[in-house]
Amino acid sequence: MIAKAKPKNHPFLKPAGYGLLALLVFSLTLWQTLPYRDFANMIEGRLAAHGVIAEISGLEPVSVLTYSVEKLVITSARGFDGEVELRDITLTLPLGDLVSMSPRLVVDGELFGGRIKGDAALLNPDSAQVSWQGVKLAELEPFSAIRLPKVRGTTSGNIRVKLPLQSAQRASGLLAATISGAGVGPGELKGFTIPSLELGDGSLDIEVDGGRINFGKVNFAGGDVGLGVDGSITIANQFKRSALDLSATIRPTREAERKLSIPFSMLAQYKKPDGTVAFRVTGTPASPHMKSF
């Protein structure tokens, strides 16, 4: 009978194992005690370099490559001033993307009364995708590019965008969104008094490609005023000089025409026999031109 030879233990295996264990414990301890305030300052500096002024509070580790942020406050973003506050945010750096040297940052948090999730490439911060659920339009009002009357409703949707800093004409992206219970007013817009109006439910499908904004589907129905918009805007570096080619269809109820008697009297030349108001808009945002179609 041949006795089996006992496997020989390499004299360095056990010390090496203890060494690796000690290194792992040291790494986890270091990870827990890193100066996360300095990390937050670094992120704030990176955002500032791209025109976004922000303050991060309560950055802490949750697990490896996952962090929580108590609050993120943005006070300015590329010329738009106002305070946007995100709470209870989770930041994740997917391990697979780090290995492939294409790191992304995934953000999940509360914003404008709803939930928002974003995904951006760290090496190319001008490219990102964002989805949102249950965002309240009333909380967006202070950040509108134009001063609007009171707005209401809830929106969900997603957007993918690539916006190079050097040229708006190279922007590209897709927007798909729904709005439920949309409404506007009371308030004023461009000198007109806007009463309280219900717009019902709406959907938006908009594509940006090759320096052009294409309105595939923009519709609102079920309220005091039905609305449909299609066409395109060819983007100039100064947006006010962009070329408009839009068609709009407005379907007001009798009550809406009564509430908005002055605006609808100005649109009387575009009114169809069935009561629909339809017109085309050309020119530029600084100097638009309207005509029937």
- Let me know the average pLDDT: 77
N to C succession of SSEs = HHEEEHEEEEEEEEEEEHHEE
Proportion of strand residues = over 45%
Q: Largest sheet, if any? A: 14 strands, antiparallel
Q: How many separate domains?
A: 2
Structural class: alpha+beta
Oligomer: single chain
**Shape estimate:** elongated
Secondary structure: number of strands = 16
Fraction of residues in helix? 10-25%
Counting DSSP H or I runs of 4 or more residues, the number of helices is 5
Structure summary:
The protein has 293 residues and is of the alpha+beta class.
Outline the fold blueprint.
Elements: H1 13-33, H2 36-49, E1 52-63, E2 66-77, E3 80-92, H3 95-99, E4 104-111, E5 114-121, E6 124-136, E7 151-162, E8 172-184, E9 187-189, E10 192-194, E11 197-209, E12 212-221, E13 225-234, E14 243-252, H4 254-259, H5 261-266, E15 277-283, E16 288-291
Antiparallel strand pairs: 1-2, 2-3, 3-4, 4-5, 5-6, 6-7, 7-8, 8-11, 9-10, 11-12, 12-13, 13-14, 14-15, 15-16
